[in-house]
Write a structure and sequence with these properties.
This protein is 33% helix and 31% strand. It has 159 residues and is of the alpha+beta class. The longest helix is centred in the middle third of the chain and has 15 residues. It starts with a strand and ends with a helix. One of its GO terms (molecular function) is protein-N-terminal-alanine acetyltransferase activity.
Amino acid sequence: MIDALTQVDLVRCAELEAQLFAGDSPWPLAGFVAELRAEHNRYFAARDGDVLVGYAGVSVLGPVGDRECEVHTIAVDLAYQGHGHGRALMDALLAVADAENAAVFLEVRTDNAPAVALYERNGFTVAGTRRNYYQPSGADAYTMVRSPRGERLEQEDRP
């Protein structure tokens, strides 16, 4: 089930973050609190019953009619990966962007093949590489972009 992330969920988010991103400066609890409070952000929770198994967030930036979105995070507990939670969270993020007819940007580790594949299945393409983006590991990141809904529909209508 996907619903809104709440203040009550944030301790669990910080725990998952520490497990999943230990080598790359995981967000602390205070980071999640600030992200959830920011008016331009939308955060979602993936749940298995009452258990928070994943979370994702996107920002909506720019003036109305000329929006861009940026995926801030998407993460799923290792024990729950491969069961569609990441895909469902991505669907929620992209619904926000599509409602704004906004392009979507994100960074992903170049060595995270499952995440890159998920993004590519959802219409993202690699726009560039950021060397040593993740710290302290020094891992590189792809910058990926997905065109606004209107542009994608125009491309589908072309012969």
